[in-house]
Amino acid sequence: MWTKTVLITAFVTSVSLTGGTAYAAPATPVGGPALGSRGLVAPEGVKKPPKTKATSYVIADVDTGQVLAAKDAHGRYLPASTLKTLTALTLIPKLDKNLRIRPSQNACNQEGSAVGLTPKATYRVDDLFKGLMMTSGNDAAMALAEVNGGLAKTMREMNEEAKRLQANDTVAKTPSGLDKPGQSSSAYDLALIARAGLANRDFLRYISTKTANFPAPKGKTYQISNHNKLLWRYQGMIGVKNGWTSKALGSFVGAATRGGHTIMVSVMRHEGYFWEEVGQLLDWGFSVRGKVTPVGQLVDPLPAAQAAAPQARASGGPVTQVTPARQPPLLDTAAQKQTDQTKAVGAAVIGGGLLFGIVWLAYGIRRRRRAGSRP
Description:
Residues 1-24 form the signal peptide. The protein has 375 residues and is α+β, with helices and mostly antiparallel strands.
């Protein structure tokens, strides 16, 4: 089979439809040159993928990593809550799922979708991951970031994980996916992140759970349900994550298994109700899998850097009270330079004054000694 390809020049200037900011795309996009196209890239000799209102999408074979079809695969858009896949993938290996915590008021007050955390109850980290991936709790996302040592540390580690996966279109600014200037991902990156997540047993458990009992104050519980509607509607659906904000519009990444094979679909910036369209894209992926020349490849992660010295992790034991880490005030570059100059001048003045005082004191002592030795 022949595949439609697009020639890419040294650099292609791409414009995000959500922010209007231009960036330089590499000469050879991650996953192959055809994935640099802004339009539909599909194999010849078979029926084209079903139409969708999504601005960007990727259909891939999870088992082989082959990209079967794509549209604007590397277009950078606001990810909304699909970014929680990166939050989970980053933090699951770092946090003891049996650790019990009492969330901060800051975590409980996060805007947008919430699982309903309260400082009056205690939760296991395992509960927080369920709240994150099942009901898309922004409160759970912040609580997990605070357990991990604070927001700044968590964002740094999430972006490091994205680079390790070669998800280079992804810039994480919030653990929840709430819109923030500079935050972005792509349909290709969402597929990379979700594929890596499927290899993690706990990640797979969280995304495939339909309903669960969630802790409430005074030892009570209430039931939460997974927001991924295809877990109930699509045969073989494993799950993963959906998202929506008024700026990002609809986004989704999900995988299903049929006949021992797994197909994944990721969509970004969908204007309407995408569940039926995602199901049709999955159907198309299963129908052409193994019969066409792929248009690209989901690349493997980069070799992991040497692991840092392991830290002791608490298991069970007393409840940890989580409070947001205090961050020093940030100054812009000019203000910081001015502050540094002021500190330098002040230090010089103080140092000079001390030196002058010591010299003057020595001189006075010497004069008194001379005066005392006179007849």
